[in-house]
From TrEMBL:
Name assigned to this protein: CRISPR-associated helicase Cas3
Domain Helicase ATP-binding: 255-458
Keywords assigned: Antiviral defense, ATP-binding, Helicase, Hydrolase, Metal-binding, Nuclease, Nucleotide-binding
Domain HD Cas3-type, chain residue ranges per copy: 16-212
Keyword Ribosomal protein in record: no
Alphabetized Gene3D superfamilies for the sequence: 1.10.3210.30, P-loop containing nucleotide triphosphate hydrolases
Family: In the N-terminal section; belongs to the CRISPR-associated nuclease Cas3-HD family. In the central section; belongs to the CRISPR-associated helicase Cas3 family.
Amino acid sequence: MSNPVFYSHSIKTPSGKTGSKQLQVHNAGVNGIGLKSLYKQLGFRLPLTVIEQLLSDILLLHDLGKYTQFFQDYLLKTGRSNGLLKQHARIGAYVIHEKYKNTHPELALFGYFTILSHHGNLSNIYDCAAKEHAKREDYKWQFAEQRKSLLKHLDQIQEELSFGQLNTLLAIPDFRKCRNEVIPAIRGKSADIQHYYLINYLFSLLIEADKLDASDTPLYTRVAIAQDLVDKRLANSTNALRNSVRKTVIEKLEIPDLLSRWIFTLTAPTGTGKTLIALDFALKLREKVHKATGHLPSVIYGLPFVNIIEQAFDEYKQTIPEDQASILAHYQYADIFGDQEEAGDKTEEEMIDEKAYHRKLMQLDTWQADIVITSFVQFFQTLIGNRNKILKKFNHLAGAIIILDEVQTLSLEKIPLIGASLYYLSKFLGTRILLMTATRPQIFELAYREIFKDQLKDLDEADRAFFNNGHPTYLELLHNNQDIYKSYRRTCIIPLLDSTLTDEQDFIDTCFSQYWQAGASCIFVVNKVSRSIALFEAVKTYLSANSYNNPVYYLSTNITPYQRFEVIKQIKEDLKAKRRPLLISTQVVEAGVDLNFDMGFRDIAPIDAIIQVAGRINREANPQQPEKPHLPLYIVDFGDCKAIYSAITYLNAQAALANKSIVHEAEYLTLVNEYFSTTSASGGFDYSREIFNAMKTLNYDKGPRSVADFRIIEEQKNVRAVFIESDEAGSAALAAYRHLLDASDIAAANKRKLAFDLHYKQIFNQRIISVPFYHTQDLLPVHDKSENILLVDRSIFSARYDQHTGFKRDKGKEKESNTIFF
């Protein structure tokens, strides 16, 4: 009698469901992808052979339950389906636990936890054992029935899996020992941050391999990239400063112990060409790693804002020919439409229509490329996270070269956590990390002081050598950066902080009218949206009353992303044509926006934020010999800083600028170092310590400070998403979205979603803004099935949306908020 055929996935046909992929083929594919993806120079305190065997067992056993008749009946609709018996992960989790329980009790638990979780998010590890106890009778019955089904074809299953001893290992683990001994140890005296990185790495390898094989998406094989591409791009550069900085950085590649260095910094002021210098360093380092180890690292470039991600993507594409490497830009982290439907629920015709699209989507979501340019949200919430959807790419951090730019934008309270997490990423996963900034916050210094100093007993010799009693030994690539800073003469900071401004008119009378002249372009940056709108109107009124014809622009997240792009484009045109435009903005322009003004005003804020605004002034001048030296950024105080940042931040910023009539650009580095030293000493790092402890104790989702609570940007509270129907393209996107939601069945919804994603999703997203809920209570949703998005349609557009300043806010409802709406 021939062996039965078992399937892992199915498709709909006119005659019913049929198997689309054999389980044996799927298991082999998952195992092959996962083992091929395993980085061979890991730094865990476990032999690579043990990790490799554990991974292989996880990959082979994750779908063991699909060999039961119960799952096959459910998949192919050939019999009655029982909700408990069709589940397929638990029995494989039991087998792997039984295999390792005597030799590696911790790995037994980790393997069980990884397989059990592979269709969802990582949860509190204690809950698994607790649930086994609470539902033991249900699980005993489930296991007994599934075991009987597997035993009918045991020889075939073992042969297909190349996995013996199933008969012996098919048993329910004794979770009393796990609950009473193993878990208390790994959450108490034996808590080890290594466990977090190991579990997340194994979990990522499993779920990525599973999803790639299920969708028939090929695993990308990285290729060698010529290391001289930046040399060729800049061959004719006459910028002496940039050339000198690049030369200094690239010379560091020749130090004897370079490949034993894992963490680098590049501290350099604006105007030194850091984007291409970092790429040049990364490509040359990649080649050295490849020659020494045979490994081709991926290059991952993380940035805080969408606009500078797009700028960097364009720079990379101009430097690296399309046929020489695969470059992905991945920064669409918010998916307001929910997860994709399982491929197995689609008809064959739908599969043909959608397969290419969903392969592309899977390639993007799993970073199948040589170079990835992504957002801080994507990067850091992959590094510190528990979500299945985002952890697919966690394994791509292993052995990578990671460039993190504009790191001064990170929230201060998270800095120690970021430093600790990056250090252990380099230690356990062999990742090389380059931090770039003009105003370097004390990332590893604070990690030592706030996290490691209290846990010295957990540090090994390598840890102690790196942290060096609070003086970390990372390699600064631009060792003479202080000399470069001291030579800069483009801008200066002038505090006007003798008193707090009473309102916008006070600013016009005492500051703007005295220090601005019509021949100068000017940028204004304030801390609150309401303040920015009022200031925009006050400046326009002043200009009109004095017959000035300078164009005036407005930027904040109160206008749609689409409008912001258009405004920036128009400002650039006006600056180039010397029309001397004025821009009133919130923090949205602080970093990376390539605008060049003659002067500016900044409401008091963190010193690094102030220096970022200074970087929008005299930007295109020779920084060491500008035609007009020390163009001013005036610092004023509207009284909003405490509400948006914190009282401590405000006091420290005030103290940093106290008794200073002027701060020249040559003094910026000293100013920011003094500010960070004072601010860091002010405390407020409980968040970092608590999230790190959650990682260390494998508390993925329980309590007020679990891994799941981590956000690199805190979610805005008490806000609503509002779609602005501002133009014909927006109207078409809105109609397509409603058409998607009106689908009568899954097949129609899938087809419409594909069309929407391909043609309208970006347009739709670019017309959504976040608005405090108390301004939106009279708005209706875009659709009765999408109440989370409200609508300003054409009929009320002029009443609710200003063509310059965006959403019209009811001034009577304006409230103080510690959320930055920018």
